[in-house]
Amino acid sequence: MAPILEVKGLRKEFKGFALKNISFTLERGYIMGFIGPNGAGKSTTIKLIMNLLKRDGGEIKVFGLDNIKHEKEIKNRIGFVFDENYFYEELTVAEMKRVIAPLYKNWDDGAFNRYLKKFSLPPDKKIKELSKGMKMKFSLAVALSHNAELLIMDEPTSGLDPIIRSELLDILTSVIQDENKGVFFSTHITSDLDKIADYITFINDGRIIFSCPKDDIFEKYALVRGPKEILNAGLRQYFVGIKENRFGFEGLVKDKHQLNKMFKDGIVIDKPSLDDIMLYFTRRVQNV
Amino acid sequence: MFNLILKDILIQKKTFLFGAVYIMIIILSFQQIGSPMVPASIIALTYVMTQYACAYDDKNKADILLNSLPLGRDTVVAARYLSTFVFLAIAVVYYIVLAGIISVLRLPVRVYPVSFEDIAGCLFSSIVMTSIYFPVFFKVGYIKSRMVNFVLFYGLFFVGGMLVPELVKDKNSELAKWTTRLFSNQWDVHIIAGAFIITILFLSTSYMLSLKFYRNREF
Ligand SMILES: Nc1ncnc2c1ncn2[C@@H]1O[C@H](COP(=O)(O)OP(=O)(O)OP(=O)(O)O)[C@@H](O)[C@H]1O
Ligand SMILES: [Mg+2]
CA–CA distance from B70 to each of A102, A151, A181, A202, B161 (Å)? Predict the structure, then answer.
């Protein structure tokens, strides 16, 4: 079966910023986290998938279908959540639902009402009267109530308190129990990804640094600490980035197995967090 | 499509309240002028509602929502045109109800009945107005389109303001004769058919342009 989401050689140019040859693939049954610093191009990529922006080159296939040629069908099967509220603020929750629901082929009113209850959303309140977290929850309720196969979310967890955030993560995990579905979401809260992501795609300055199973990342990358004396040019070349102070260094290496063979002594190898990885990659670019 | 029109209506419940006030103001200020109060009321309310619908869409960055839903851009554009007709119908009903209330209560205010010509005239001017405005709106968005919109609206009033007194002043001028012929009840079937076809052509050209522009927009 075709991957649920496939991006190949995607390009988009803005003045002062460009997405350069973005490629990644998400198979059905998995959750992919999309990370990168502010301005790296996450929202741009998501907007290109949703055909809100026009691509300059490359290919985007959702459910194996071209995202522009089969736009309407694809959108029927996608649940989306954006980082800002894009619903009509003047409408109530119930009115907004009334406008949106009939547009979806597979709208499930029962599911929607269950989510309203679960998220304690008052149907008669105007959307502008909802708190930021409640707006996000409304957005989620809509995204989850039409049997979407693919959920595309731009920072869905931002603005949510820890309790709701963990509830959301549970919901996403249960969505994925259906092996036909997939979730693609960007976030700055990497601990969310530690909990639920199967794949991580890391974008920096419009380029994909890596897109691979989460476990592979921790299998390969390592945080290395050691005394200053042993940090010579031979060792340096293995590092993505190094932080030095008077006493020693700490840095990120891409392949810890390579390193293990050569420099067993004097160094401490740790498991990096996703934040560490992002930090070192971003800093390297800044130093260049 | 119906949902988008419903949205345009739901979103401006307030305008519905003020609608009655707008029409009242026009009726009162047209006391000396007379029957043009009918098209003036209807066109003004249609115009205001159309503007509000566009403004609310802009304020809510609706393009992002609408284009993420399973909706073609052609539907979004077509709904915008169709809601104008719905607003026009609402405006006609509003005027009839208000004028009705005024006559029933025998208030010391003159009102005029809505004629078929009024409706045809309103339809024609609304189509002209929106056919010029919407392509600009879909090309550059609401904020930037306001300039055009300003020129259109005041242009209409300005031209109207120049022509009407001219017509009233000299009943034998060429313009007056031409207008009388145009608005006399003995409308030639050919003229009506011609006007109809021209209007439809105008409208569909405008729609095609709007769609072309909207398809190229990024959000
Ligand atoms: N419509 C646009 N026109 C011009 N430049 C744009 C446009 N949209 C985004 N950009 C630029 O593209 C770059 C990437 O922006 P994008 O919103 O994709 O970043 P992001 O990864 O989502 O960041 P954040 O984490 O802050 O949400 C930025 O430099 C931004 O200024
Ligand atoms: Mg973003």
Answer: 10, 14, 18, 29, 46
| Residue whose CA lies nearest to ligand 1 atom number 28 | A39
User: Which CATH superfamily groups domain A5-212?
Assistant: P-loop containing nucleotide triphosphate hydrolases (3.40.50.300)
SS (H, E, C) A65-80: EECCCCHHHHHHCEEE
Q: Is the CB of A38 under 6 A from ligand 1?
A: yes
Is B10 at the interface with chain A, CB within 8 A? yes
Q: How many domains does chain B have?
A: 1
Residue B215, chain A, CB below 8 Å: the answer is no
The answer to whether the beta carbons of residues A100 and A62 sit under 8 Å apart is: no
**What separation in Å is there between the alpha carbon of A12 and the centre of ligand 1?**
11
**Closest to A275 (Cα-Cα) out of A239, A221, A198:** A221
Question: By CA distance, what is A101's nearest residue in B?
Answer: B3
A143: exposed, middle or buried (C-beta count within 10 Å: 0-12, 13-18, 19+)?
buried
At A99, list the tokens. 């406008």
Reference B56, options B48, B44, B46, B45; nearest CA is B48
Q: Is the shortest distance between the CB of A234 and ligand 1 below 6 Å?
A: no
Whole-number Å distance between alpha carbons of B46 and B167: 26
Going by C-beta distance under 8 Å and a sequence separation of 6 or more, which residues neighbour residue A244? A228, A231
Reference B63, options B149, B147, B132, B142; nearest CA is B142
Which residue type is seen at B144? K
Token pair, residue A235, equals 């060792």
pLDDT, position B128: 86
What are the boundaries of each domain within chain A?
Answer: 5-212, 221-287
Separation of CA B10 from chain center: 19
- Tens digit of each residue's pLDDT (9 = 90 or more) over A206-255: 999 999 999 998 888 988 888 887 777 777 778 888 888 888 888 888 88
- Print the domain residue range for B72: 2-215
CA–CA separation, A58 and A60 (whole Å): 7
3-state secondary structure of A209: strand
**d(C-alpha B134, C-alpha B142), whole Å:** 10
Residues of A in contact with B13 (CB under 8 A): 90
Report pLDDT digits (tens) over B136-148.
999 988 888 888 7
Residue whose C-alpha is closest to residue A203's, from A189, A186, A191, A219? A186
Of A31, A20, A1, the C-alpha closest to A171 is: A31
Task: Write the residue with the smallest CA distance to atom 17 of ligand 1.
Answer: A43
Top mutation candidate among A42, A184, A189, A285 for ligand 1, by most atoms within 8 Å of CB: A42
